[in-house]
Amino acid sequence: MRKIKLTREEKAIESAIQEYAPVGRGEFEEIARAIALKKKDAVMNIRLNKHDLDNIKKKAKHLGVKYQTFVSEILHKVAQA
Questions:
Q1: How do residues 11-27 score in pLDDT, each as one tens digit?
Q2: 47: left (phi over 0), alpha (psi -120 to 50) or beta
């Protein structure tokens, strides 16, 4: 039998599949609701002071996230308060 050589990406996919575990219907519905709440379905364009935007980008980079995601999370927290 011939051994198939996987690429790095294919190996990552194969190992990720092994991390998944089956869940019950209730837990599945809870996960689906959480995903639906996080869905971003609106677009917003705003003007910012360049200095503020640069500071936001630095903070986002320090946290290891994209700055748009960082701003979105900040707005989400303020909207929920």
A1: 888 888 877 778 899 99
A2: beta
Rounded distance between C-alpha atoms, residue 44 and residue 65, angstroms: 19
CA dist 54 and 1 (Å) reads 57
What 3-state class would DSSP assign to 43?
Answer: coil
CA distance 79 to 81: 6
In whole angstroms, how far apart are CA 1 and each of 11, 34, 58?
Answer: 20, 45, 53
CB 63 within 8 A of CB 70: yes
Q: Which amino acid is at 32?
A: A
Contacts of 23 (CB under 8 A, 6+ apart): 31
pTM (global) more than 0.70:
no
Distance of alpha carbon 3 from alpha carbon 70, whole angstroms: 45
